[in-house]
Design brief:
167 residues, 0% strand, mainly alpha
């Protein structure tokens, strides 16, 4: 046998209740749903986006690794430049110094541009995720409001039927 007791089955002519019985009040349910919908809508609209909560926690590691790769390429290019200067018997000359300065500046600019693009892409992704979360929260608040309105309508129908029976 299994570890859970079997659910009692209704005997013929009895039905298991489909909804809570007893103290359920449809009017209280509709009022509660509408209050929660209003609160949820207000929170979704007025709360700051908290874009930082959606940022990739590994973004800086990716940027650091990219910077290391660029630095390694810069060093290889400097070695090549030094070898070319040596072959031309100009190692240590002013032309080599100017060429090294220009090369260092270009690699520095490239490293900065790459880091800026990576940070911008990360921010854009985080902003998109934050906006989608806000839209989902508003959608949930709208559903809750719809359920509250539906419960109110059911309550109105019940009251109308009771009034007709009373007449």
């Amino acid at each position: 046998g299994g570890g859970q007791p079997a659910m009692p089955r209704p005997t013929q002519g009895q039905f298991a209740p489909l909804a809570p019985q007893g103290s359920f009040n449809v009017n209280q349910a509709s009022a509660g749903a509408l209050q929660q919908a209003i609160g949820g809508t207000g929170a979704a609209m007025n709360a700051p986006l908290q874009v930082g909560a959606y940022m990739n926690p590994y973004q800086q590691e990716v940027i650091d690794r990219t910077q290391q790769d660029i630095e390694r390429q810069r060093q290889m290019a400097m070695n090549t430049l030094g070898a070319q200067a040596t072959a031309a018997r100009a190692f240590g000359g002013s032309r080599q110094g100017v060429a090294e300065g220009v090369m260092a500046g270009e690699y520095g600019r490239m490293a900065g541009d790459v880091a800026a693009r990576q940070r911008q892409a990360g921010y854009t992704q985080a902003m998109d995720a934050a906006m989608r979360d806000r839209a989902a929260r508003l959608g949930a608040a709208q559903q809750l409001a719809g359920l509250g309105q539906q419960a109110f309508g059911i309550g109105q129908t019940i009251q109308q039927q009771q009034a007709q029976q009373g007449l």
